[in-house]
């Protein structure tokens, strides 16, 4: 199992609009907050809603020299089952280049893997974690836009790269930024900012609820002794 | 300088001035170096593909760090104007990429012969058809025989330090030929990295055009100085001799730059674990990948060492011979199809047969560390277990 490694090379495959690149940025910031190192590379292309999008994250407790896309990942995250079933990824099949003892997280509890895929993954001693991240996002945050938070929470929960505080600070930075100033000039401006701020605070709280839930879910499974596929109910 | 900067020598600027860490792109790092170089003038033609370098240099011109800046009509015009302005006695900078470099090449290869001190940024891009804008450093091969001093930056920090050092090296009286600083487009120019920089209130001592082996043009020294002796005007033994002597002088200038590469940049190579059986030799961005591979190999307890080549011209032949003396295999990863570095390394050592030509990627592809690891495992007679079949 790919946990407790010094260094993770992650490939995140999803569809346009799912927040693939956003979550890569948050992952990187969370690593930075934890006093560790990360580098990230979004795939350059004409991404659009439902079109394939990939982002790559390297995370390590040591400085990272390497640059460029992750060609040989030890973690793959699949944000949408169409990446597997429709080949919506930049590499076919989606696990091309996967290293031994790797971790794959798929946003689905439907059996999307063909028998021949399972055979390859078994030979590589990979572990596949499947759960309905979008359903979980809808259930807790009331929006499927939090799918990326559920996926990110799961990978961080399983790898224990950072703690909840590091993530919360990173999510806060992403949604509230560093430039937010709480005092405006006039009362009406204050109220407008307050309203906007309140909405963002709510958004942040919902996102954190999703992440905390996935941390709990990750803690409940024992991957070291698991079969190829571990399905987690939401 | 109108900004009331404190002018200091290059040794103080690079080695002693206090620095602070910044998280910036390679393009920003190059422009930040120009900002501290007391550069008089920049000329550019921002073709696609380029990097943000000359745009950012435009910004620092607007802020008053550079006295003059203009957009030329195209690259041949840019590079010709650089020559004219430098002969006029001012400190010059320009940057280009791939096809733009090749378009300006006719003027660029004449720079050393005209004794033009200037700094040229080369942010490498694909040059071959089909049209692409991706990183690939094949264009550096075209510069290697021009007489120019060539530095190759591994990352954003190197880009900053080498660009600054280049301004000092190019104006040394016993060098006085252009210095190019290359780094990989996109992987370094468009990506952020940590760069330690000194305050921008400090700047390199201003250009002294009279401290030169060839006097700058002014009212007493007309531009005809070089043309008066031009071999083209005669066709006899003397004209051939003039040209051959001049060429020898240019390549000697190139060699003499080496002592300044030691002075400002800690030498033309960096060596880790020099007595290893398998040595990785790489420059630029490939050196970052090789450095990573070297770390992987160290973690696995393999007998592997690493040489980063900072200077491509003058080529560090003696230094490489010393570093590779005990090697049984030399792996040279590169970001181009022809393998210009592996050819140089092969020719530099007496047992060139130990050089593995690769791994190479081109056309803009990433150079995975795993490809280098596969070569290491092969060299050590091990099974390559990392990669999926």
TrEMBL record, chain A:
SUPFAM superfamilies in UniProt: Pyruvate-ferredoxin oxidoreductase, PFOR, domain III (SSF53323)
Q: Which domain of life is it from?
A: Bacteria
Q: Which Gene3D superfamilies does the record cross-reference, listed alphabetically?
A: Pyruvate-ferredoxin oxidoreductase, PFOR, domain III
What one GO molecular function would you report for this record? oxidoreductase activity, acting on the aldehyde or oxo group of donors, iron-sulfur protein as acceptor
Q: Does the keyword Oxidoreductase apply?
A: yes
Q: Which residues form the Pyruvate/ketoisovalerate oxidoreductase catalytic domain?
A: 16-177
Q: Which NCBIfam families match?
A: PorC_KorC
Name recorded for this polypeptide: Ferredoxin oxidoreductase gamma subunit
Which organism is this entry from?
Answer: uncultured Sulfurovum sp
Automatic annotation (TrEMBL), chain B:
Cite the Pyruvate flavodoxin/ferredoxin oxidoreductase pyrimidine binding domain residue spans from the record.
32-251
- UniProt keyword annotation of Oxidoreductase present: yes
Q: Where is the Pyruvate:ferredoxin oxidoreductase core domain?
A: 276-352
Output the InterPro entries linked to this UniProt entry: PFOR_II, Pyruvate:ferred/Flavod_OxRd, Pyrv_Fd/Flavodoxin_OxRdtase_N, THDP-binding, Transketo_C/PFOR_II
> What GO annotations for molecular function exist for this entry?
pyruvate synthase activity
- GO terms under biological process: response to oxidative stress
**Leading EC class:** oxidoreductase
Q: Which domain of life is it from?
A: Bacteria
Entry EC no(s): 1.2.7.1
What CDD domains has UniProt attached to this entry?
Answer: TPP_PYR_PFOR_IOR-alpha_like
Keywords in alphabetical order, please.
Oxidoreductase, Pyruvate
What the entry lists under PANTHER family is as follows: PYRUVATE-FLAVODOXIN OXIDOREDUCTASE-RELATED (PTHR32154)
Stated name of the protein: Pyruvate:ferredoxin oxidoreductase, alpha subunit (EC)
State the organism of origin.
uncultured Sulfurovum sp
């Amino acid at each position: 199992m790919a946990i407790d490694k010094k260094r993770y090379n992650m490939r995140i495959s999803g569809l346009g609009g799912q927040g693939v690149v956003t979550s890569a940025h948050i992952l990187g910031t969370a690593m930075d907050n934890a006093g560790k190192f990360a580098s990230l590379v979004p795939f350059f292309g004409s991404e659009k809603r439902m079109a394939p999008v990939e982002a790559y994250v390297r995370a390590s407790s040591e400085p990272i020299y390497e640059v460029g896309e992750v060609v040989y990942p030890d973690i793959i995250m699949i944000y949408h089952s169409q990446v597997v079933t429709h080949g919506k990824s930049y590499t076919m099949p989606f696990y091309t280049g996967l290293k031994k003892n790797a971790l794959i997280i798929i946003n689905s509890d439907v059996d999307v893997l063909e028998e021949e895929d399972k055979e390859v993954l078994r030979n590589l001693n990979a572990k596949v974690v499947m759960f309905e991240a979008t359903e979980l996002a809808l259930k807790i945050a009331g929006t499927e836009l939090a799918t990326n938070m559920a996926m990110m929470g799961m990978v961080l929960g399983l790898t224990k790269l950072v703690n909840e505080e590091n993530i919360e600070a990173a999510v806060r930075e992403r949604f509230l930024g560093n430039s937010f100033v709480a005092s405006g000039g006039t009362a009406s401006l204050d109220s407008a900012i307050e309203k906007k701020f309140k909405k963002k605070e709510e958004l942040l709280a919902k996102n954190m609820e999703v992440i905390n839930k996935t941390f709990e879910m990750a803690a409940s499974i024992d991957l070291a002794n698991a079969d190829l596929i571990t399905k987690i109910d939401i | 300088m109108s900004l009331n900067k404190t002018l200091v020598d290059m040794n103080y600027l690079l080695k002693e001035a206090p620095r602070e860490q910044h998280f910036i792109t390679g393009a920003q790092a190059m422009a930040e170096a120009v900002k501290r170089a007391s550069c008089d003038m920049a000329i550019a033609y921002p073709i696609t593909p380029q990097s943000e370098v000359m745009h950012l240099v435009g910004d620092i011109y607007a802020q008053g760090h550079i006295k003059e800046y203009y957009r030329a009509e195209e690259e041949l015009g840019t590079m010709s104007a650089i020559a004219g302005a430098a002969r006029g006695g001012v400190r010059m900078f320009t940057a280009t990429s791939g096809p733009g470099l090749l378009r300006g090449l006719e003027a660029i290869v004449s720079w050393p012969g005209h004794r033009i001190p200037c700094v040229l940024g080369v942010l490498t891009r694909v040059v071959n058809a089909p049209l692409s804008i991706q990183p690939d450093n094949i264009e550096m091969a075209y510069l290697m025989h021009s007489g120019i001093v060539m530095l190759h930056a591994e990352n954003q920090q190197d880009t900053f330090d080498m660009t600054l050092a280049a301004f000092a090296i190019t104006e040394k009286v016993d060098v006085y030929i252009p210095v190019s600083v290359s780094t990989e487009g996109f992987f370094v120019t468009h990506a952020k990295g940590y760069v330690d920089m000194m305050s921008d209130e400090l700047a390199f001592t201003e250009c002294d055009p009279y401290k030169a082996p060839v006097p700058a043009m002014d009212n007493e020294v007309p531009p005809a100085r070089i043309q008066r002796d031009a071999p083209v005007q005669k066709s006899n033994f003397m004209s051939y001799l003039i040209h051959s002597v001049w060429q020898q002088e240019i390549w000697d200038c190139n060699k003499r730059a080496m002592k300044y590469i030691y002075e400002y940049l800690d030498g033309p190579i960096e060596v880790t674990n020099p007595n290893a059986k398998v040595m990785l030799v790489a420059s630029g961005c490939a050196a970052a990948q090789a450095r990573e591979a070297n770390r992987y190999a160290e973690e696995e307890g393999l007998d592997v060492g690493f040489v980063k080549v900072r200077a491509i011209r003058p080529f560090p032949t003696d230094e490489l011979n010393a570093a590779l003396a005990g090697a049984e295999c030399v792996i040279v990863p590169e970001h181009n199809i022809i393998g210009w570095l592996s050819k140089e390394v092969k020719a530099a050592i007496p047992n060139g047969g130990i050089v593995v030509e690769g791994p190479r990627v081109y056309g803009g592809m990433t150079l995975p560390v795993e490809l280098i690891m596969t070569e290491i495992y092969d060299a050590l007679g091990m099974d390559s277990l990392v990669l999926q079949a």
